[in-house]
């Protein structure tokens, strides 16, 4: 066993004690800062890896919040578009009811003119829905881009001043506007394949007879040629009515019997089913010589032209002598109702698309919320302090610091000079 005597200078003891006290004080201060901030990593130097992980999580959180704000704006705009389509659909239904009422045989033309005024007001109201804007002044139906008012022109020549098409939706966003061209402009005339148009009587001074046609149907799609035909009526020498089809159909229907007095014509008896080239329609009433109907392929139209055509059929169903042109009125109302229904279907389809986008926005919002929770959890694990452990470490460090102070105070009293008297 060594009996060597080690001598330590008093100054050295003081330096060591003060250095230990300073280190404990620094550690205690750091723990106190962690407790007050609630973070384990207050600055990057505390844990570079954890600080980098927390910074990445914060960046993604910020991006996620931006996506959520954008989604809220898109959803609000789409909700306005869906509401506008719903209001337009209600106005269209009211318009349709007025058109039906205008066909009442007991009404005079004056009473129908009053209905026309209501129809004009509804038409202008529907045009206002088509040009409705969001809170930022952007049209709800501008498609891929349009002017300030997507639908311009007069009631009979409304056009879409924009680029047709529908914005695509993504994983974090939905389209904020709808394709106005698809919603309001793509309405087929007639029955969607062909249309039957009633012409004025070709004989000067003769009013058209009381005959009208329905919208017809397709009986054999493979036989449809897409050729336009004219149905012209005649009065035979025996007083019976007949009609011709120009150009002659490729495949006349089996019920189309030639007239006994003229093999180039077909006998007419109200109502007559006319069928040829895969299509069929019915003409009803009492036509007179010079009456005619045109059968031609359906043409693309729009909601506003459909409404104006129905208004015109009611407004113009007056003969020069003041009597009602019953055939024109019945034909116009029948065709108008069919095209109004087609227009309403287009609006309902666009409203359904808006509803699907709103549902998609709800699903995206749920995904963004879940992602936000996950990112916040990642950030918390990287930099947040376990409060229980933090308090325990602080208390332990505080006890050690107090012990160091007491030890220093005790060592101070061990100087040799304190025992020299």
In summary, what is this structure?
The chain is of the alpha+beta class and 421 residues long.
**Main sheet strand line-up:** 4-13-7-8-10-9
Structural class: alpha+beta
User: Strand portion, in percent?
Assistant: 15-25%
Sum up the overall morphology in one term.
rod-shaped
**Pattern of helices and strands:** HHHEEHEEEEEEEEEEEEHHH
Radius of gyration: 43 Å
**Number of beta strands:** 14
Number of helices: 7
The biggest beta sheet reads: 6 strands, antiparallel
Overall residue-averaged pLDDT value: 82
The span between the termini is 35 Å
Helix content: 40-55%
Weakly predicted, low-confidence segments: none
Give an overview in words.
A hairpin with a 6-residue loop joins strand 1 (146-152) and strand 2. The strands form 4 sheets. Strands 4-13-7-8-10-9 form a 6-stranded antiparallel sheet. Strands 5, 6, 11 and 12 form a 4-stranded antiparallel sheet that branches. With 421 residues, the protein is α+β, with helices and mostly antiparallel strands. The protein has 7 helices and 14 strands. The radius of gyration is 43 Å and the shape is rod-shaped.
